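REQUEST FORM: STRUCTURE PREDICTION
Request ID: SP-0412
Submitted by: Lab K.M.
Chain count: 1
Length (residues): 82
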Amino acid sequence: MTFFNVAEMIPWPNGKRIYDPHNIKAVMIGEFRSPKQNEWYISGAIPEAYRAYTDYNEESKYQIAKLVRTKTITETIYVEDL
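STATUS: Completed
RESULT:
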């Protein structure tokens, strides 16, 4: 699964931030079509998630995405004595 950064401001419920925005990413849901209003889609030379503010015309097709909350874990393992 590929995670994409979110390029737009996230519309939080009631205007209050409920999660750390650094832990919000976008994933593709497997649909390739014109985004509807308020849907997220993947675009750009460096792919990022954008929100459609209006319905896009039928000629503009993108990978549709959804936002997910993520958790980054860094793991250190023993390799050998020096």
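NOTES: The CA atoms of residues 50 and 59 lie 17 Å apart.
Reviewed by: T.R.
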